[in-house]
Amino acid sequence: MSQTPLTAARQQILHLEFPQSLGTYDAYPEAQQAVDFLADREFPVQDVMIVGTDLKQIERVTGRLTTGRVLLGGALSGVWIGVFVGLVFAVFEGGEQFLVRMLSTMIIGAFFGLVWGWLGYKATGGQRDFTSVSQVVATRYEVLVEHRHVQQARELLAEHDPMRAAVEKARIMREEAARAAAARAARETRAPPRA
User: Does residue 73 contact residue 138 with C-beta atoms inside 8 Å?
Assistant: First the structure.
C-alpha cells in the first residue's frame, strides 16, 4: 500500500529520531503546562511530543431513545438533506419557482429521513434504547523529547517542579535498572555453559 505525500509528511512530523521520556502526567493540562514552561524558556519545543497512552472510551448516556425521538431526528436530518438538494437544483436550473422547489425537496427529504430513521431503529430490535456521546481519552500523558535535548529539558523542568523532577528521575532510574537486568538475564541464558 503506497502512502500519499501528505500522509508521509504527517508521519515525519509525528516522529522523533530517538525520543526520551521527560515525565508522565495524569491529565493533559499538566503535560501541556510542562511543555508551555519549556517554550517560555526558549527550549526547542519542536523536538517535544505529548503522547497519550492507556486509551479508554468514555460514553455518557444523554437520554432515553423513543420512537418519537427517532422519527423526529430522522425527519430533521432529511429536511437538511432536502435543503441541500433544493439549493443544488436552484443553482443548476435557475431561480424560477425557487420556493416551491425548496419546499418540495424539504418535504421529500423529511419523509425519507423519517422512514430511514424508523427502519434503522427497528433493525436494532431495542438493543440500544438510549442516546449518548462518547470520547476516547488517554489515562496517562507522556512528554517525550529528542535525545539531544533531554538533559536541558530535565534541568528546566526541575526548576519548574523540583519534587516532580525527583520522582521522574527515580522512575527513569528504575526503568533503566529493569532494562539492564533483563539484558543481563538474556545474555546469561545465551552464554554457553562453562566446562
Answer: no
